[in-house]
Structures are given as C-alpha cells and as structure tokens.
Design brief:
The complex is a heterodimer of chains A (50) and B (456).
Chain A: H1 2-25, H2 30-49
Chain B: E1 3-7, H1 11-21, E2 26-30, H2 33-42, E3 47-50, H3 63-72, E4 76-81, H4 86-94, E5 99-102, H5 103-108, H6 110-134, H7 139-151, E6 159-162, H8 169-181, E7 186-190, H9 196-204, E8 205-206, E9 218-219, H10 221-224, E10 229-233, H11 240-252, E11 254-255, E12 264-265, E13 269-274, H12 278-283, H13 289-296, E14 298-301, H14 312-322, E15 328-329, H15 331-339, H16 345-359, E16 363-364, H17 371-376, H18 391-400, H19 402-421, H20 425-432, H21 436-453
Parallel strand pairs in B: 1-2, 1-3, 3-4, 4-5, 6-13, 6-14, 7-10, 10-13, 15-16
Antiparallel strand pairs in B: 8-9, 11-12
Helix pairs in contact in B: 2-3, 6-7, 7-8, 11-13, 14-16, 18-19, 19-20, 19-21
The chains are: A mainly alpha (50), B alpha/beta (456).
Amino acid sequence: MSSELHDLRNLLVRLKSIYKITLSENVDLSQDFDETLNKLKEFIEKKAES
Amino acid sequence: MPKILIVEDDQFFRQSLAIELKKFGQVFQVGSLPEALKALDTALPHVALIDLNLTDNKQSFEGLEVITRAKEHGVLPIVMTSHDSPEVIQQAFERGCAHYFAKADVQDNLQHHLGRLLKSIEADDFERMLKERFLTSDRYLLNQLNQIKNLALVDDTRLLITGPSGVGKTLAAKLAHDLWNEKAPFVHLNLSELPENLIESELFGHKKGSFTGATSDKVGLLSKADGGTLFLDEIGTVPLNIQKKLLKAIEEKSFTPVGGTEVIKSNFRLISATCDDLAGLIERGEFRVDFYFRIKGIEVTISPLKSRRNDIIPLLNFFVAKSAKKIAFSQEALDILEQYEWPGNVREIEGYIKEAIASARGLVQAKDLPKRILGNAAPTPVFQETGLLTQKIRSFIKEHGLPNLVKAIENEAFEEAYDQTNGKVNEITRELQLSKSMYYRIQNDWKAIKDDQYVQ
C-alpha cells in the first residue's frame, strides 16, 4: 500500500509540474503530459480491477 | 541573494520548482547523488532542497547522504519527499535535516513554507558579505554598514561615507552600488588627485576650444554615470564654484558642459566620501551648506582601525594569504602589531605586509618589525585590563563617546537576552535585572536599529 501511494503521489506531482512548466515557460510538453496521464489511468484501472 | 540547490530526480518537478524559486535567489538543479555532492562543493549553496529517493529503487535513500554532506558544508538541508516512512524521516532528522515537507505541499505552498526562510537567509547573507568584504567583526561598524542595505531599495538616495584615509570608503561605495545594481556603471573620481582647474571639465566634460588645451570634445563623468553611480571621493576638496554647479546638476539631473550650450541629461546616484570634517569646512565658509545637505542623504561612518583592534590580526592574515610568498609572525610580533595605531588604517596594513614579505624569511619576530611600528605601539602597561575598561572600550569611547558606548552595550546585551529567551519579556527583564520602563526604553532603541538594518 505504501509503495503504491508513493507512486501515485509522484505521478500527481509530476503531472502538476508539467502543467506548471507549460504555463510559465511556454514549452510543448504534451507528450510527457499524456504519458504521465496514461500511467495514472493505468494505475487507477489496475486499482479498480483488484 | 541566497543560492538554492534542488536535488531531485524527477526532472519535471525539479524544473517547476526552479521556476518558482528563481524569485527568491540563484537556483542550481541536479538529479543524482554524484551531481549533488559535486554541486555542494562548487555551487556553495545556502540551502539544499533534497529528495530522499534519487533512483528508481524505492528502497534506497541517497538523499540521506546528501543531508550529511550538506551539513558538513554548512548548507541548510531541507527534505522534500513523497515517502512517508517514519523510519526514513527520523533518519533524515538524525542526519541534520532542518525541515521536512511533502512534495505536493511544497508545490502548492512554496511561498508559505520557504519564502520567509529564504528571506532570513538573505539577511544573514548580507551580514556575511559585510564580514567577508570588510573582514570586520566590529558590531558598531557592521551596524553602520547595514544602513547601506536600505539604499539598495530606493532609486534616488544619496550616501555620504565618512572616515579617515585608508579605512575602505571606496569598498563601502562599491558595496552600495553592487547591492543596488552591480551591472550599472560605477564611475569613481578622487577629487583630491585632480588640479582645481581640471575638476569642472572632468565632471561635466567640455567642448573643443573652450579653453587652452581643449583640443577635442570631452565627455564628462556625469554623463558616463548616467543610469549608474557617480562616486566622488574626497568631496571636501571640491571648489565652491563647482559645488554650486554640481548641486544644480544633482537637483535638475542635467548640466551643461564647459564651453557648451546644450543641456545634457544624466540620471545618476551620487555617493560621496570624505575624510574631512565637513561641518568645520562649512563653518569656515569653504563648503556650501545647501550642497552638504544635498549630498548627505544617509551618512555612514567607517571607524579607524585603532578603534577596532580585533580586526587587525584578521586583516594581517588576509593580506598574507593573498600573497604568493608566505610568512608568519611570532606571538610577540603579533601583540605589537595589534597595539600599533595604524594611522594609515587598512591601506597601511596592506603596505606593511608587502614590505614584510619582500624582506622576511619565514617567521617575523618582534625585532624584525619596522621602527615606526615598534616606536608607536601603545605601551602595554597602560592598557592592562585590570578593571572593566578594556582597550577596545577605551578606543570606542575615544572614537564615539561614552553615551554611544552605553547604548551599544545595552543593545548587545538586549539582543543576546532576546535570542536566548525567544523574546520572552519576563525572562529578559529578570536576566538583565531591568525595570519594565527600562525594558521598553531599551527595546525601542534596539528595535529602531534592527528596523534600520533590515527593511523587510
């Protein structure tokens, strides 16, 4: 549980970081954003199945 | 400006944090343990924000090693992690972590968590810069120099630096300039080094043919200082007619070159310095009173070395360390050097060290010291510290007067008690044996000095 929580928190922090960088630096990080978002989706789906 | 090191393996979190932290200081970012250890050595940060887990292996906590090394380097370690294990957090604190934040919390409340901390580091940094540049531990001098910090916050303020020759007035002027804007021009003129008839042309410039020898147009220093600082050293030697013209230029931010008709605009900050008694010059009609008040602004006095003898040995060591050839002094020689009056102040110490290095072989003993120093050193028996009056106190009274000494002692004792008791009134009054009215009087004085030192 604690390991999963750790992963989830890291993914959320990363997602928010990408969003912040995109806003302030005007760079295209859409691929990284999508990748992180997909990992989050996978995580949630896996959790829902178990 | 605080230097902040971010040690974080997630490049996106690291970068977003760096963007936010740029508001507070100079930011360095690294993503691994070896890079972090190298950055601690090379970037010399004040504070390190450290992620504990720096690899994909969730069970390894390389950040703990960074905490230990940061502490060894005198860097403030702050942990930010998404790992909640109480054992790991305990280890972080055992290694000297100063604060612990969850990453998500740092991301959302950075200003709240770190803003105040970084501002306090900035204040400490200024004090450290003063100590490094002036090599002084003298509280009175540090308080004087602290006033310079306030100047950096406003654009149109004048500074007058007073003190005897060789104490570092130019250094103070440069400090004031650097704090305000080190990239802007800093134009320095020592007025005592110029013949009277050339001062006007040097300051305001001249047109070709305006006087014998003016073979081409010349741009004056007032123009060169546009957007920056004009530092006029030995302002007491400016002739009266030029004082009048300078006064007008300062007030109107414009002037006319010698022999010219066009009005030139120049927006500069003025820093003046003098070792003369300007009040005496005014009394004798040699200095305009309106000019005095125009240049004065904030006045900072740099005391002579004889009134801060604790600085003598560090200064000697500093100039020896700067030289390629090394020498050392016997204790007896050091005692004499510390008692010497050093009428030429820091400049004289620098000159003496060059002299000593040129002639000495290794250890300098008392017998090797120059006659002027041996003859002029204050006789030790007179300064035996039998009562409360130490040599330092005697020098302070001579320089600043007894009332200022009493005030300085009250402030220092108050500050010490304040720090020890976390500002608890009852404990301070008990510790210092003060009545409440005395407490409030001293607290008001102390607060006024603190407010002067650090404008938040």
